[in-house]
Amino acid sequence: MEFSMPGSFPMEGRSPIPPTKISEDMMEVVNDEYLENFQKRQKISRKTIRQSNLINQLDSLIYILAGYQLIKYCHSASLIPLVVYVISQKFLCCDSFTSTDSSDNFMTFLNQTERQNQENNVDPEPIMKVFFKKIQQAIYWKSLLVMIYHIGFVCFWLIPLANKGKLNLVVNGTWWFVSFIGETIPIYESLDTFKDRNYITKMMDLGLVGLLFSDAMILLIQLILFQSIYIQSTLSPMGRKLNGKEIELLRLPNDVSTSAAADESLDSPDESPFALHVRLYEALNLKLFDQ
């Protein structure tokens, strides 16, 4: 038997302590937990990229539809609806999710107002609801007024122009703009043929249905953007709530935090994964912010 003095180095002949089963199990648990957290962050990161692309496409689609109806149905002679659509899109703050430089927008102002109210010990939720309700109402009123404007545009400008037999003047735009696509206009055998038609048929022939349909499409897309950004995003005070489904949360491009919880809502049985579940029924409820 070999003896060693207390505090001396171990003798060369002593065998090392073998690894225990407990330490191996602990390492396996730690590795599994690390891998699981990494996979969750990857899921959220990929979802955030898809969401940014989705918001960018919906934002671009608004401008495409507004420009299309201006050229196709209004013959480049109706600028007011286009200007209204551009202004309303700025208030929806899509650039916060599609651009790296979006420090100056309406949502930034709302967040600053919320922080100031919290610093002054004022509950910011009632104030935020007032802002959100005004924006929601503005979207509906804007769409209604634009539709009325388009009806008046067709009834009081296009139809009198057609009654005079001067529809050929708007084939390539008007004095507002000159277009090069050659807008399609109704062709009649004679002026009397057009005058004999009833008023509803005249409005349909001159593109009123296409105008109102595109207005409705723009309204629907803007409601989707409003719901996504103002109610379901991390940029909004209403979107930063606990116990919400991850697939219903719109994140900023740089908001993939390590504490984010990737739940089963991100798992899709289809090959194409979901980007965002939009609760559109909330945006359709005009009494949403009265609760």
Automatic annotation (TrEMBL):
Q: What is this protein called?
A: Uncharacterized protein
